[in-house]
Amino acid sequence: MGALLWLLPLLVLRAAKGYSGDDVDTEEVVAVLQESISLPLDIPADEEVENIIWSSYVRLANVVPGKEGQSATITVTNPRYKGRVSLLDPGYSLRISNLSWEDSGLYQAQVNLRTAQISTTQRYNLRVYRRLSEPHVTVFFEITQEGRCNISLTCSVEKAGLDVTYSWISWEDGMDTVHESSALITSWRPGDNALSYTCRASNPVSSTASRPIPAGSFCADPGYPSEQSTYFCLLAKGLLLLLLFVILAAGLWLLRAQKPCRTPRRRKFKRNRLRLKKKKPHPSLA
């Protein structure tokens, strides 16, 4: 009973100062892949630190304050963090460099205070994201018999990862119009204003936008794409036929040019053979 009465003032003091390990709020921290992040550690100025234990599922590092004029000493106990963990000076905030996907998760700092002889706990939820590259926009369009042009725009980012949001921005009637989605379906009729659409992709660490996509370039003249493609197709076929005709004509011309040169030689060769046969004496029977 006496021991319980002795512990009661300490428990009341701990509750009054807010030093609780179970009801501590978790601080959300976002970071960029392959970059660095600092986990801030707040310690009252009038408190003397005994040591600090950093952990992430398992113990990560131990920190021992240095003597007057000396820096604190950090001992990394988790091999995965070797060479990537340091302390921000002044203070005991933890810096993690060259972040990987595996570094995402819960972190905890247990601060053992020498002055009050109690411990305070701070927790963090670290989320690692990749910086987004420029969005890629895929355009599909269809021209109906009524002359209306239906356009489908799809926005995507290579290796986007989690928590990516997409929005389409267009300028209409002097103000921005925003559509929250990775896909946008719209239509256009002759005489309508040709709008431009920009895709914006965002995640907790970056935001990037595509180049404006002018819808009018696909639909300004509904007959243009088909007529233009037919024209180029006929032109290509005509050039191919013309090339074949030129090659055939050149071949025939070469054959005709070589034939008169070869015929006299053959005839002369035959006459020489006849003369040799006539001049050759017959062997006597004796």
Describe this structure in words.
By secondary structure, the protein is of the alpha+beta class. Among the domains are: about 20-130, Immunoglobulin-like (Sandwich), CATH 2.60.40.10; about 135-225, Immunoglobulins (Immunoglobulin-like), CATH 2.60.40. The protein is built from three helices and 17 strands. The protein has helices spanning about 1-15, 215-220, 225-280; strands at about 25-30, 35-40, 50-55, 60-65, 75, 85, 95, 105-115, 120-130, 135-145, 150-155, 165-170, 175-180, 185-190, 195-205, 205-210, 215. It has a six-stranded mixed β-sheet, with no helix packed on it.
What's a concise summary of this model?
The protein is α+β, with helices and mostly antiparallel strands and 286 residues long. The chain has helices spanning 2-17, 216-219, 224-279; strands spanning 26-32, 37-39, 49-56, 58-64, 73-76, 85-87, 94-96, 105-113, 118-129, 136-143, 149-156, 165-172, 175-179, 183-188, 196-203, 206-209, 213-214. A 6-stranded mixed sheet has the order 1-9-8-3-4-5, with no helix packed on it. Strands 12, 13, 15, 16 and 17 form a 5-stranded antiparallel sheet that branches.
